[in-house]
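Hi support team,

I'm opening this ticket because the web form for multi-chain structure prediction keeps timing out on my end. I have pasted the exact lines I submitted so you can reproduce it. The total is 544 residues across two entries, so I didn't expect it to be a heavy job. Is there a limit I'm missing, or should I split the entries? Thanks in advance, R.K.
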Amino acid sequence: MRWHPISFPARLAMAGALSPFIVALQFYIVRFLGASFEVTAWVLLVLNLGSVWLVARRWKDLRFSAGELTAFAIVFLFLAACVLIPWAIPAAVSGKVFQLIYNYNYGLANYLMNAMGVVDRPVNWLGTSAGAFLSLVMADAWKTTPFVAIILLAGLSGIPGHLYLQAQIDRAGFLRRFTRITLPLLSTVLLIALLFRTIDALRVFDLMFVLTGGGPGGSTTSLSLYGYNYFLGGDFGYGSAVSVVLFLIALGLSLLYIRAGRFARELS
Amino acid sequence: MSEERQVRILYVAGALGFMAFSLGPILYMALTAASRRPDFLSQASGWEFTLAHFAAVVGTPSLHFLDNLRNSIVVSGCASALCVAVAAPAAYAIARLELPGKALILLCVLAVSMFPPVSLVSYLFKVMAALGWINTYRALVLPYTAWILPLSLWILTGYFAQVPVDLDRAALVDGCSGLGVLRKVVIPVAAPGIFSTALLAFIFAFNEFLFALMLTTDHAARTVPVGIALFEGLHGEIPWGIVMAAATLTTVPVVFLTLVFQRRIVQGLTRGAIKG
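Hello R.K., no limit was hit. The queue was backed up. Here is the completed structure from your submission:
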């Protein structure tokens, strides 16, 4: 019974094959950076959207009672709801769509880059390891930004409005209000979003399976895909060892997440 | 107030940019599905409208798209119903009873929901193979239920905790039994929450990929995401028009659900991810 749980540590120690692990872990460290990059890069946009959404909602409630909901508000709210769509569709479907977007000859990505004059010849998105990595990060960012947006929205709505009013009376500018009020009060929620997304990114399987297949040359193989390949090859012991390492990393991050979210305090 | 005006313009521009970013790939997918050629961007002839790809997806039995869609809907529906049926009494108990170590139970549930599915799937495969369940609905419904249960429990506990205890007490005074309170008072009051939980469970099950990939072998139980991922043309190249038509048809019901129940989804997700 090679796949019995007891044998994982023994096999792990004996195998002497730690090097693939380290490579996989290194990939994951880079991927962590990818996740954090993604979160930080979209935070600003999301903050914008969030504020507009809140403003629009309050505005709607005001006008709606007076029976004066404008066409503009309806269109705007509809578009705001559309932002959820990337989160809701299957990752395998978005993987296929992005495979076409990154197509070398006629994909949308190369068309846009060419039209904007950024590059003079097509970019080989999925054929090079750097390009494939960037493609994955972009596709994953597209898929999971709505979720981050929802978490940040909840955090934004928890900031008391009178703080902004006071700051305005004190003639604090927009940038100052953002860096002195919004960011500090949002820091916990930002940390939660970051941790949650990192745990999620650790588990990513379907997007890589569909979009890059782990290639080219194994350069975008995640720990999930790495373990899966061993299972597929029938080596359950090694595949399980990979899974256990993945689980331990996820567990450590989950504990951090639970601490950051102060869930225990909320429950008591 | 000129700065306020600038800020407002910045907000609107940012929001519109974000929307374009979110909707761009979806529009591209739909346009490609309805285009005569997938490479319409680089063609001089441009975009020509056709419904041929949609007709091919629905009308070609060997593609099994409709079979896959049926499997997906049945499996996700069953998993979602089962999930709520198990999670609702459990969440009620956690929200109402004075259990020792209540917080610990919920935190363990939360930790389990972070579990990477790849750690389970090979053993699941062995179990299902031993039971002879590979490529049946059961083989997907049970793991999906177990996998989505932690989140459902977490969300529902939040909803039940919001129902005032006085309602329970009043019903008990009026001679209702313990289960009667749950069935006649708490569940109707918390119905919106239960509905959002069921909706989220359905979407999660509908989008699941790894279990469906490992535990099904053909169109008898294969779900849509796996079906689309494994789509291949006769000659090895990807038939983009047909793939995108299938993707569009899969997306339509999900998009409909999302747009109609947007507020419920946001509520449920917020409850699941952060408290307070």
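A quick check on our side: The mean pLDDT of chain A is 68. Let us know if the file doesn't open in your viewer.
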